[in-house]
Amino acid sequence: MSLWTWNELISACGTESGPAASTSGAASGVDGISIDTRTLNPGDLFIALSGDPGPGFHSSSTSTSDGHDFVLQARQAGAAAIMVHKSVACDLPELRVPDTLQGLWDLARFSRRRMQSPVVAITGSSGKTTARVYLQHVLQSQGLTHGATGSLNNHWGLPVSMARMPGDSEYGVFEIGMNHPGEIAPLAELANPDVAVVLNVLPAHIGYFASLDAIRQEKLSIANGLTGTGTLVVPDSLEHTVITNPVVSFGFTEQADVRCLETQQDSGRQGQLLVSVDVAGRQTRFELGFGGEHRVLTSLAVLTVCHVLGVDINRACESLATAQPPDGRGNRYMVAGVCIIDDSYNANPSSVAYALDYLADDNRGQAAGARRIAILGDMLELGEQSSAMHTGLLPHCAGLDKVIAIGEQMRGLYQLLPDEQQWFYAAKASDIDVDLLCESLRPGDVVLTKGSNQIFWAENFVAKLVDRLRGQQ
User: Fold this and answer.
1) d(CA 128, CA 134)
2) pLDDT, tens digit, for every residue of 401-410?
3) What is the mean pLDDT of residues 364-377?
């Protein structure tokens, strides 16, 4: 069956179809939703969005481009139909709407109404995508689960993910992001979750907020979208007195409804953690392939959602043992005897501190002559506090052997390091001689790459590093 019938599309948008809608392509519906011709699959509905979302949302990808200029490319890529808000020269079945962004949101609302099973929405300053991937993985073993791909969590990404949800899904899992005040509540109301999760409140994007408490209030506004009987899941340390819905907490203290009792390294499997937990009075444990306190907290949040949903906790723990983080969130690569930890997707002061502490405790670098090395890039959108937050990472570098710093803000931290820890500084990642760096690494070294998205991830830096090391084998 098609993801959307043509009648459903018309009903969702509350509009009439265009002149080509009587063709056989429209009669059979569409198999997917696309807003980008570069990733469009044959059979998709192509939605011609403007590059400017308007005053309600902000995006680093805001542009003057117009999806209507790419309709012919969509046709060539195999689109089954198009959604437009102005005339285009194309013979595909057409949905004409007053505004295509609103039309996309209308599809998302209709999709949410037709899917009668539980929906989970996740927000937080760090770890949203990892938590969503973990939860999808766990729930998939217990029922047909739909979720986002990549990090689709903004005013375009969330409605696209929702519009792609099959009506017979048994669970829906989405993430909600923001970088300016007032963005979470409307997205939460769109998702209308049965369970809303606030993973953490950290100083990410604090350059756009008056204080950390303002970020807390913005994160908690995810509760605005909860269904009438919906539940909010929060860390046990997060103040949430304004919330009227039921609240279930996770963490390390006795006050947490789902709490970590103990963690220990698995002596038989290097890098594995054994985590003992208490889930509302019931004790169990699970293995975690990627350690560190932040990963434990993410896993606790996942188990808390499972508890709220009433799914099998033992099966959930079994599934957690095989969960893998998405690319760029702590993935390990063993190449030429060197362990590369790719945490390059993004960074904020807390996530960098977690990553550095984990690197310092890593037990892989214990061979004679092996080193723990951090390649650190600037953390962006920190406003007036940026300099202090970068230099504030100094105590977390104490257990490292070498540090490479990238960017103007990280230079302040680099200059405070003891001479023996300083390796070199570069203004940008592309200035690093990757060949020379790889020649200088030794078998047994553990190398962490961590920085804001534009520093390493956008430059494909870790992939280049891994490829060069493979060439040396």
Assistant:
1) 10
2) 999 999 999 9
3) 79
Cα torsion 435, 437, 440, 442: sign: negative
Question: Would you say 13 and 107 are in contact if contact means Cβ atoms under 8 Å apart?
Answer: yes
Indicate the pTM of the whole model. 0.88
Query: Using one digit for the tens of pLDDT, what is the confidence trace for 224-247?
Result: 999 999 999 999 999 988 788 999
Residue 381's pLDDT band, with cuts at 50, 70 and 90, is confident
CA dihedral (269, 272, 274, 275) in degrees, to 10, reads -170
Q: Are 233 and 308 in contact (CB under 8 A)?
A: yes
Q: Is 73 a residue whose pLDDT tops 60?
A: yes
CA distance 136 to 175: 11
pLDDT at 299 over 70: yes
**Are 120 and 133 a contacting pair, CB within 8 Å?**
no
In b/e form, how buried is each residue of 115-140, taking b as 16+ CB within 10 angstroms?
bebbbbbbbbbbbbbbbbbbbbbbbb
Separation of CA 8 from chain center:
30
Average pLDDT of the chain, as a whole number? 90
CB atoms closer than 10 angstroms to residue 409: 21
Instruction: Provide φ and ψ at 108, rounded to 5°.
Output: -60, -45
Give the dihedral sign, CA 110/115/117/120: negative
Identify the band that residue 17 occupies on the pLDDT scale cut at 50, 70 and 90: low
Given a contact cutoff of 8 angstroms between Cβ atoms, the answer to whether 445 and 367 are in contact is: no
**pLDDT of the residue at 267:** 57
The full set of domains in the chain, from first to last, is 6-100 (3.40.1390.10), 115-320 (3.40.1190.10), 331-471 (3.90.190.20)
Question: CA-CA distances (angstroms) from residue 127 to 258, 326, 446?
Answer: 18, 10, 22
User: What is the side-by-side strand order in the sheet with 145-147?
Assistant: 145-147, 171-175, 119-123, 195-198, 231-235, 247-251, 258-265, 273-279, 282-288
Is 418 in contact with 398 (CB distance < 8 Å)?
A: no
The residue to which tokens 């506004």 are assigned:
221
Dihedral angle sign, alpha carbons of residues 217, 220, 221, 224: negative
- Collapsing DSSP states into helix, strand and coil, what is residue 354? helix
Phi-psi region of 41 (alpha: psi -120 to 50; beta: other; left: phi over 0): beta
Measured distance CA(349)–CA(359) in Å, rounded: 15
Q: Going by C-beta distance under 8 Å and a sequence separation of 6 or more, which residues neighbour residue 24?
A: none
Under DSSP, is residue 319 helix (H, G, I), strand (E, B) or coil?
helix
One DSSP character per residue, 84-124 reads: ESS--S--S-EEE-S-HHHHHHHHHHHHHHH--S-EEEEE-
Secondary structure of residue 309 in the 3-state scheme:
helix
CA angle, 442 then 446 then 449, to 5°: 115
